[in-house]
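notes to self, project folder thing:

trying the whole complex as one job this time. last attempt i did each chain seperately and stitching them together was a nightmare. two parts in total, labels are on each line so i dont mix them up again. if this works i'll redo the older ones the same way
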Amino acid sequence: MRGARGLGSAPGEEVRISVLGALPEIVPGDDLPAMLAAVAADAGVQPGDVVAIAHKPVSKAEGRVVRLADVQPGDEARFLAGETGKSPELCELILGESRKILRRRRSLLVCETHHGFVCANAGIDASNTAEGTVVLLPVDPDVSARRLQHALSDVAGGRVAVVITDTHGRAFRRGLVNVAVGIAGFEAVLDHRGGRDREGRMLVATDQALGDEVAAAAGMLMGKASGRPAVLVRGLVTAPAPGTLHALVRVPEQDVFRAEVDADGVVR
Amino acid sequence: MRGARGLGSAPGEEVRISVLGALPEIVPGDDLPAMLAAVAADAGVQPGDVVAIAHKPVSKAEGRVVRLADVQPGDEARFLAGETGKSPELCELILGESRKILRRRRSLLVCETHHGFVCANAGIDASNTAEGTVVLLPVDPDVSARRLQHALSDVAGGRVAVVITDTHGRAFRRGLVNVAVGIAGFEAVLDHRGGRDREGRMLVATDQALGDEVAAAAGMLMGKASGRPAVLVRGLVTAPAPGTLHALVRVPEQDVFRAEVDADGVVR
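result (full assembly):
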């Protein structure tokens, strides 16, 4: 019998997701890769495991913490502050992190970040950080993920993949989900084209966003305020690869929801 | 030490996701709740478990399989067929399942279904079904989920929650993810507002789309063509509730990406 009792189950039959010990509060300059690797080693990390970690400790270790009092807001930020009710300093930071403000409604600012993410406030977060400070996304989360991957793979003695996550809202659906904002060590999107269904017909259009599925799975255990930033995913079959967030980010030119359309929704 | 070795871990510290045995090929009229309950009983399903199942066997059991040759396409379907290269019969079905076609580009049709889902082809699927037939989404997937929930809870002797899933593309991000299209037995969106972060500040805007995170987690194990439609999720802490897909579906009036906007993206 496969399934719930299947501790000896075949690869790809069971995935276990567990909280990866506790990390201390991270401050700029901390050697997060070494700290995470130590916690993972205690938890018995193995080759083939995937470690998911929220971006916030990564950002903090990399010094992406800004004191709002140190920010000089410009005219655009002051205008946006008046429109949204946010502080001019926060608006200045949001503008700095954004290629474009895609949507604005009252206090809501949906931004396209320089990485290509579409999310509220360009991913800038004021929770779980010292009063008067905010946390920005890592400058290059793939590079951050790769550093973690190297440290984790060293202690595991083989490939450990890494997903750095953030919680994003979505168009069309309510609620936030944990998504991948940085990837190292595996293919974040699996291309099933060329596979066949049970009737032997070719499958089309079946790119699986595995990186985001891993992030969402880890999100089930990452409480919002409970100090559980890192999660171990064991038993998932992944394709070894350098891995990159760009596999998951749709460029604006290929996105029918950022394209010019006519009244019938036809992309021009 | 918590974590990977934590078989006796505290609630919410470890989640195990496993393939729930094999179901035979489902045909219209099959008693899927009884069949799924039998497989789940063999796997040792317990109160508190969540069972995720792809919509296709659910739809098939409920007779939502249509022979394209039986469909009479109207004028709008014929027009759409000419524009997209799809068959007029398929276009007729897509129109019938849709409130609105939101976007169209070459063969791509992004639809808003009567349930409120935004997805390609109104969720109609031609893979893993007999030649010349297609599978529609269940008419009311929450009702479908509730039937499965009752059968599963009976054999478990307590509450087993259910998520019916489908794979959808997303705006802004590449690749498909498994999302919830039907819910029974738990709160699909958790409201963390009123909680506090580690510094004691109130958390805002932190609705967690747990139903979609469960679906995505299950998606890691649901191969596209491998006959693994059902997955058992054990160890997840859920809030008992009737549950509904509508917790996860944003109504168009609240969606800034379906709103009228000015050139700056400001919602009118």
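what i see at first glance: Residues 1-8 of chain B have pLDDT under 50 and may be disordered.
need to look closer tmrw
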